[in-house]
From TrEMBL:
The lineage of its organism: Bacteria, Pseudomonadati, Pseudomonadota, Gammaproteobacteria, Oceanospirillales. GO terms for biological process: thiamine biosynthetic process; thiamine diphosphate biosynthetic process. Pathway: Cofactor biosynthesis; thiamine diphosphate biosynthesis. NCBIfam families: salvage_TenA (TIGR04306). It comes from Marinomonas aquimarina. GO terms for molecular function: thiaminase activity. Catalyzes an amino-pyrimidine hydrolysis reaction at the C5' of the pyrimidine moiety of thiamine compounds, a reaction that is part of a thiamine salvage pathway. This is Aminopyrimidine aminohydrolase. PANTHER family: BIFUNCTIONAL TH2 PROTEIN, SI:CH1073-67J19.1-RELATED. The gene is tenA. Residues 9-217 form the Thiaminase-2/PQQC domain. It is an enzyme of class 3 (hydrolase).
Length: 224
C-alpha cells in the first residue's frame, strides 16, 4: 500500500480537514484574530509534542537510514515552524515563555497523546500513520491555498502562515518524508489486519485535525 490509499480510505474526513472553514477564513484574512491566536498558541504546544514524536521515530527505527530520515524534521520543527509561531505571537506581546505556560486545551492533549501512544505502543509505520495527516495534510492545504484565487496575500494578517506552509522548503520536506513513508508501507497489504489498523490510526489523526481547527474557530468573538 501507499499513503494515498490511507487518504482514499477516509475521503470524507480528509475533505473536511483540508477544506475546513478555519482554513478558508485564514486564506481570505477574515478569520477572527482571537481564533487564530488560540490556534497558534495551542499549535505551539502541539508542535512540542510533535518534536517528541519525531524523536520517538528515531528510537523506534531499526536502520540508520530510518533514523536519518527523522532527524531533519526534528530540526525543522524546532528552528522553523515553532520559531514562526513564537515570532507571530511576539507581535502581540506574547513571549515564548508565556506560550510555554499556556494551558493545553482538550483537543491538544487528545491529539498529541494519541500520536505519541500510536508510536509507543506500535512500530515505526504505526507512528508515521499517526503523523502523516499532520505533514501531508498541511502540505496539501498550503498548496491548495497558494493556487486558489480567493486567497488574499496583500494585507492578510496571516500571510506568514500561508507563506510557511506553501513554501518550497516545507513542500519539499514533506514530499521527502512522504516518499520514505511510502517505502515503509510498500510491503503492507491494504486489506491485511495491519493495513486496516493503519487506516484506523490515520483516520483518527485526521479527525483530530478537524477538531483542532474547530477548537480555534470556537474562540471566535472571545475577548482579546
Ligand atoms: C495540528 C497541526 N497539524 C499539522 C501541523 C503541520 O506541522 C501543525 N503545525 N499543526
Amino acid at each position: 500500500m501507499q499513503y494515498q490509499d490511507l487518504i482514499d480510505a477516509c475521503q470524507q474526513e480528509w475533505h473536511t480537514y483540508t477544506e475546513h472553514d478555519f482554513v478558508q477564513q485564514l486564506a481570505t484574512g477574515t478569520l477572527d484574530k482571537q481564533s487564530f491566536l488560540h490556534y497558534l498558541k495551542q499549535d505551539f504546544l502541539f508542535l512540542k509534542h510533535y518534536v517528541r514524536a519525531y524523536a520517538l521515530a528515531i528510537y523506534k527505527a531499526n536502520s540508520l537510514e530510518d533514523m536519518r530520515q527523522a532527524l531533519p524534521t526534528v530540526h525543522a520543527l524546532l528552528n522553523s515552524e515553532i520559531a514562526h509561531h513564537v515570532a507571530w505571537c511576539e507581535q502581540w506581546g506574547i513571549s515564548e515563555q508565556d506560550m510555554e505556560q499556556e494551558p493545553e486545551d482538550f483537543g491538544t492533549v487528545a491529539y498529541t497523546r494519541f500520536v505519541l501512544d500510536a508510536g509507543m505502543s506500535g512500530d515505526l509505520v504505526s507512528l508515521y500513520s499517526a503523523l502523516a495527516p499532520c505533514s501531508i495534510g498541511y502540505a496539501a492545504i498550503g498548496r491548495q491555498l497558494a493556487h486558489q484565487s480567493t486567497t488574499v496575500w496583500e494585507g492578510n494578517p496571516y500571510q506568514t502562515w500561508l507563506k510557511l506552509y506553501s513554501s518550497d522548503d516545507f513542500q519539499t520536506h514533506v514530499a521527502h518524508g512522504a516518499a520514505h513513508f511510502n517505502k515503509l508501507l510498500a510491503d503492507i497489504d491494504l486489506n491485511s489486519q495491519k493495513g486496516q489498523q493503519l487506516i484506523d490510526t490515520f483516520r483518527t489523526a485526521t479527525r483530530m485535525e478537524i477538531a483542532f481547527w474547530q477548537q480555534g474557530l470556537n474562540q471566535s468573538g472571545a475577548q482579546l
